Predict the 3D structure of the following.
Amino acid sequence: MKAPHIKIKPPGPKAREIIQRDDRYLATSTKTSPLAVKRAKGAVVEDVDGNLYIDFTSGVAVANLGHVNEDVLEAVQAQLQDLWHFAGTDFYYDVQVEAAELLARLTPGDFPKKVFFTNSGTESVEAAIKLARWNREGKQFLAFMNSFHGRTMGSLALTASKRVQRERFAPWMPGVHHVPYAYCYRCPYKLTYPECDLWCAKTIEETYLRGLVPPKELAAIFFEPLQGEGGYVLPPPGWTKEIERIARENEILLIADEVQTGIGRTGAMFAVEHTGVVPDVITLAKGLGSGLPIGAIVFDARLDFGVKGAHSNTFGGNAVACAATVATLKIIEREGLQKRASVLGERMHKRLEEMRTLFPIMGDNRGIGLMRATELVHASEGKEPAVKERNQLIDEALSRGLILLPCGESAVRYAPPLTIEEDLLESGLDVLEESFKALPKAS
Ligand SMILES: Cc1ncc(COP(=O)(O)O)c(C=O)c1O
């Protein structure tokens, strides 16, 4: 049967029963849609009541190869026959080395690299924080407003996206300074690109490093090449290069958080490739294992801890997750899925721009590759964030068979699998258009 196909308005009776039990036993987290999934294949998701949906989320930018990819499944099944776990930090096995070799080769930078495997994005960021402090006399960090780097106590100190993420958890890790990001649609300096001459980057050196924190007190600058959770905000050309220049000239490590942007999502294996910037450390997770939990940091080998016990974990480099990683990276490379993401992303953007002529509430369509978003605003009120309408849009889409996720204050993100069939992508965009049509007219 073809998606979308809605037999019963979600949540149906089986979904409602699961949601009720979930509410009773699971900690409150970030759930946004009453969708109870039974199975998923490619870009199609089936819920427990038999509804079929088109997935524009990839399970939050994880299933970049589509759900239950056959080749990854085969690699995982073969690995399950031989070895599940043997503490890859304490012992040796081939598949972990193979995954590290692939990452060292595929990440930007023509220099020897090393890898530390983790179990999630936040754990990758924690490892990067420790690696930076280990190497640098300065122990403080520069990060960006609106950024999201995770929710454990180190990464949370870098995160500055939504107040609720930090509220009641202070004191945060000390020594993190936040500066405005290059959010051109809502320029923090009320300037316009390119006349601004990248003031938001230049002022970091001219204002913050001059008057707030001496560069030698800094261990690293953490940045997302394209802000994810904070609203899929894409900096203008030249911004990332300028950040790199500031880091280099002031001898500060540059750490690219590619947890969400990595693994082909933006039309390149890693988003920094679009900018020509070569970071000292790249943090990864999400799409790395196609749905098996694994993260990594890939870094200049000269930064290695070099002392046993300084950093380690139990599950990092789990054999089954590494088998999924090796298969994932090889498939993307073999099939050129980054390029596919670019082509489909352009097509998606064109459709979104057409829709924007019909719906003034679509304030800004932005992104790159298959990492795109629309910021919803009340155009008549000068870009006032249309939060209620954004939430309604996500509900309308779900009830028509399209799965969406929010980001930023009033944006909706589009991150379908890179393998999504062209007709399914078009059907998804048709549903999106219908959903915009269903919003109240006054915007
Ligand atoms: C850029 C970025 N860094 C870190 C994280 C944290 O990853 P995790 O949820 O796996 O801890 C996320 C999650 O959305 C992310 O988008």
The mean pLDDT is 97. Residues 120-122, 125, 148-150, 224, 228-229, 257, 259-260, 285 surround pyridoxal-5'-phosphate (CB under 6 Å). Residues 135 and 303 are 6 Å apart (CA to CA). The longest strand covers residues 371-378.
